[in-house]
Inverse folding.
C-alpha cells in the first residue's frame, strides 16, 4: 500500500510535479528489489539522493547563517551549522512532519522499527531536500529548509539561547577583562508584521562588535551576544 503522498506534501509545504522523485527519496534500500549485480538497484532507493541532499542542506544552512550573523567568527558559525545538519536535529524535524510514516521499507526494517530510527529519518530528510531541488529548483528547497529545519532550530535552540542568557555572560566576561560593558543597538527590522525580523548589534568598542538577526529584539540580542562571546573566546 502506497503512503499518503498528498498528506506528506501538505506537511512539507511543497507539491511535486514529478511525484516519483518524492517516492524515491523515501525508498530505503531494503525495499528496493535485489539484482544479480548488487544488493539493491541504486536507481530505485534513496542513497544517492541522501548524498546530494546533504550537500544542498550544508550550502543553504551556511547561506542563512552568514546572513543572520554577518560578523560572526567561523567557530561560532561551524558550531551552529553542525547542529542544524546533524542527524539528531534532522530526525526531530522528520518526526514533526511524520516522515517515518511515509518511508518505503523492507520487511526486516519494518519489523525492527525502521520508521523511528534516527539514521533512516535523518537520511530521508536529506533525500527529500534533494528531491525538492530536482523537482523545483533552489527556491522551494530554500523555503523548505528555512520553514522546517531552521525554524525548528529557532523554536528549540533559540529558546535555549535565551535560557542561557548570553547577554549576562558577555557582561560578566567584559567585567572580568576590565573592558567596556556591551551595548545593543537595533540596526534594522524587516518582514511582514506577523513575521518581523530584527537586526541587532552587540558592541563593546569600535572593531569589537557582532550583528545577528532574530524574530524579536531579545532573541537577536542574545544571538549577537553569543557571537561576540565566541569571538572573544577565540581571540
Amino acid at each position: 500500500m502506497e503512503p499518503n503522498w498528498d498528506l506528506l506534501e501538505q506537511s512539507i509545504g511543497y507539491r511535486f510535479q514529478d511525484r516519483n522523485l518524492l517516492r524515491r527519496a523515501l525508498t530505503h534500500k531494503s525495499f528496493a528489489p535485489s539484482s544479480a549485480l548488487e544488493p539493491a538497484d541504486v536507481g530505485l532507493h534513496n542513497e544517492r539522493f541522501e548524498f546530494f541532499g546533504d550537500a544542498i542542506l550544508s550550502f543553504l544552512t551556511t547561506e542563512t547563517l552568514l546572513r543572520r550573523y554577518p560578523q560572526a567568527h567561523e567557530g561560532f558559525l561551524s558550531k551552529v551549522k553542525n547542529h542544524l545538519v546533524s542527524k539528531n536535529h534532522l530526525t526531530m524535524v522528520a518526526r514533526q512532519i511524520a516522515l517515518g510514516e511515509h518511508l518505503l521499507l523492507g520487511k526486516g526494517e519494518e519489523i525492527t522499527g525502521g520508521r523511528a530510527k534516527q539514521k533512516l529519518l535523518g537520511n530521508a530528510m536529506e533525500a527529500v531536500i534533494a528531491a525538492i531541488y530536482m523537482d523545483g529548483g533552489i527556491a522551494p528547497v530554500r523555503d523548505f529548509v528555512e520553514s522546517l529545519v531552521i525554524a525548528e532550530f529557532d523554536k528549540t535552540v533559540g529558546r535555549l539561547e535565551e535560557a542561557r542568557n548570553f547577554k549576562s555572560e558577555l557582561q560578566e566576561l567584559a567585567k572580568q577583562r576590565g573592558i567596556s560593558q556591551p551595548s545593543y543597538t537595533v540596526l534594522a527590522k524587516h518582514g511582514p508584521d506577523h513575521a518581523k525580523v530584527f537586526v541587532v548589534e552587540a558592541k563593546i568598542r569600535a572593531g569589537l562588535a557582532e550583528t545577528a538577526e532574530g524574530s524579536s529584539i531579545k532573541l537577536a540580542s542574545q544571538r549577537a551576544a553569543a557571537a561576540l562571546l565566541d569571538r572573544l573566546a577565540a581571540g
Observations:
- The chain has a mean pLDDT of 87.
- The CA atoms of residues 7 and 88 lie 24 Å apart.
